[in-house]
Design brief:
heterodimer, A: 231 residues, alpha/beta, Rossmann fold, 6-stranded mixed β-sheet, 4-stranded mixed β-sheet, 30% strand, B: 816 residues, alpha+beta, 19% strand
Amino acid sequence: MNVSHLTQKETKSQHNETIIDLHQVTKTYEGPAGAFTALKGIDLQVRPGEFIAVIGRSGSGKTTLLNLLAGIDRLTSGDITMAEWRGRNVGLVFQFFQLLPTLTVAENVQLPMDFAKNIPTAKRQSRTLELLDRVGISDQADKLPAMLSGGQQQRAAIARALANDPPILLADEPTGNLDSMTSTSVLKLFAELSADGRTIIMVTHEHDAQSFTARQVTLVDGLVTSDAQRS
Amino acid sequence: MTKLLFVKLFRDVQTIWGRIVMMIVAISLSLIVFSAMLYARVIFMSEMTSDYSSTNPASARITINPEVAPDHAEAILTAAKAESGIIDATMRSVLTVQIQGKDGEQTPLQLFTAAPGDPMRIANFKLEQGSWPPSKGGVLLERSALEYLNLKVGDSVTVTGFDGKLAQLNVTGVVHDQSLAPAYTGLQGYGYISTDSLPYLGKQPVLNQLIFTVADQAGQTEPSHDRDVIVRTALSLAGKLKGIPGIKIEEIAVPLPYQHPHQPIANMLLTALLAFGGLSLLLSAILIAAMFNGLLTQQIPQIGILKAIGAGSNRILQLYSIMVLLVAAAATALAILPGIVLGRALAQLVGGALNMDVTNFSVPLWTYAFVITLGIALPLLMSLAPLMQASRRTVREALDERGVESQSATANRFYAWLGRLRSMDRGFLMAFRNVFRRRARFLLSVGLLATAGAIFISGLNTMAGLQAIPKTLTDEQLWDVEVRLRAPASASELTNIVGQVPDAIRVETWNTASTGIQYPGEMNVTRTYPDQGHGSMSVTAIPLATSMFNSPPILDGRWLHADDVDAIVLPQSIRKTLPDVKVGDHIQLPIEGQLTNWLVVGIVKELAAAACPCVTQTGFDQATHHSDQANLVRIVTDRHDLQTRIAVGQAATQMLTDAQISVQVARPIDTLVGSIEGHSALLVVLILLIALAIGIVGMIGLGSTMSTNVIERTREFGVMSAIGASASTVRRLVVLEGVFIATISCVVAAIPALVLTVAIGAGLGNLFFYAPVPFQVSVPAIVIWVVVIVLGATLATLAPAYQASRLTVREALSYI
């Protein structure tokens, strides 16, 4: 098995080429009840700037796929070629927002910049405010996450994911915890980011979300059963 | 560490400030206890040596016969001062009279006697009131004796003089003699008189002890630390004194130089306390591990988030290590001053209990450095494992954390079986399962409480063991009153006289003699201290058909047989002076000025007021060439209360005095028991206080663990409420879990408590008695601990349980 990484420069230069390449990716979990294979030899190629919805029922392997792409989990066999994950070239958005409760919204957004050190120190604060403005919650910058609505928290999480200007965004059920109106506004935001040239892979089981995406990959029992471009 | 991570750390601490404070308090408390014990030990042992040295104690004492008047001691003093190595010399005496109390009870008063012109350079004291020498008929009392005898300057005491007549001594002043143990431990008073007062007590103004200080080499002025040098000088001088016409040498006493008579007991006391302090530190170490494990468990989802946004394992480790460091630093800072204050107070307390003034409280810098290092390093060390584990979790594991570890198939089958029981309450089952949901936390919580319980119970068991020591005396010695004579008298005459005392139902005559181990080349040299008690040894002749003595437990060899003539049984404490002695060895004992030879046939265990070395009466008579002689009468009384015993003792004394037989002292067995209890009282009290501190630390740990347990399951309680559980059901569940943990910890503590009791008893006992302290199990201690822990668990869980039950379902389900 192999996970190889592209540099940020290489990633951005490959406009028409593959930015993410999965080849026979398999993930098996060992548990008390025995081995369970969540992904069974997935092949998938993603081009820069695509906005992809990975859809499937519970247990189909879509979250496992995302975790492997995000580097949160390790594959059992196969190859993944993509940009180096975690904070630098990949931004993560979770279903339950996963903001740090004791840091303000602005501090949550700025923290990945401190880890990656890509953005110069003097520019981090201004970039934070820009990102919060981009997602429409600049007036919530100094509040703790608990004081925000679900939609606002998810926007803050998106701003955090964009902190280091990653070319790739991975979102796991980003609207799963939101009402329909808020979901739509978040999905529109993703569409805008995709139009800006970012590659976005979004795991979802909502059919409404698919209308915002250019491509849908359907997983059933760990296998890709459909990979359709939306016209 | 980035600035934002510091901000997160600070705010995280703010949100859990209650638990942080508990952690700091628990660590601080243990560190205070430990550091106080350490400082007290360092301060006191140093002061003990210097205070004792300040009295310029005699290196050696030679008891001569006959006694000489001070103005006739010239030849003796000249010989002494001419001896190479002797710095200074003077003549003294140590005598004992009996104070007659209002109710007829007698209390011994040991009188240290010197010539009025004695400059008191050797074996001196601090004059607190009055002057030296006291007036004729006057006595300076040692200050602990003043308190013990409830007297003040200006009072008169009635004593029985050496001629058997009552006499008055006036208390003209107070001294402090730091070379003596406090009066209450020896159950006797100490006084200082000049030879001018002896005629008032029916005795000639004579002295019988030559005391002197010895240097390593001639010309030096500092007394030697080397007992061998002192013994050689004393033997050489004794040889020369024998050349003076009419002078016989009774005894040469060379106690261990620079060692206070109570140094062993002080050592035992302070070592025991330090050991318990160390145990309390161990307890807090486990507490730290448990509390940080709980804290970190709550932080797991946030650790996952941090890793997901780019933080590495090292950064996570750094972040939480700083939290540990801050807690440790705060706890250590809080503990420094109280530790010093408590340590000094403890040193003074021990000093007071041993009749010493502690004035110099300085401790070497290494002790402070050691305590500070321990306070900082121990929490870091103990939290290292949970820190490493938390920082190494993968993002997926951290984000997927649900608060339950996977169970083994066996455990699952067991729970399934439990669940099928018809009478099984689901809430009860759930509470039972929840106890084991996090193995590490369960083990740490149970480990913490079990350790605290083991220490608490073993401490009180040890206390019970110490309190049982007097009973070993009364199990062995089956008499009510003993009357010691100043000189041996006819045994049959003694039996006839004392047998007529009302309420005396059985009378036996015995013999005891002061002696000392005869070392090669050390003729007649003992290790007795000036108070004639510490360091002394007496051989007891056991009557053939005694009913007043049970032979003590045999450690090696056998007890005496009726036909033994040269057999001797030694107490285990003989190993203080003869570490290698064993059954089958031959030893020599000087008895009444004659060298006697004995075969060691047994070694016995005697913890209190050892009767042995023991020989048969036949063997004693043969060795001393006496027969039908006794210097001790033992009486069994009709009733065994103290008043009866005192009355019988007085009556026996009067009848013997009327028969021209001089009595030294008559004492009930209560006196011996009281003396033993006095020696261990302080240790017992201090163990209780430490046990209390340990209990508090245990409770803090339990409270913290239970509150963590509740907080991290807030969502779970929300789900339970959503499916119909009432607030009281939730509370009951939480409280039950706490009670389960407490109960399991009590069971787990059982074996370690017993093992620790044996270990502490052996350690303390061997240090002081050369035999373990009696093994005792304190049932009250067990009951107290179980009740306190279960009650404490209930109370500790009630607050978080109440809080959890008060949240609305919506609030609980939205809790992260």
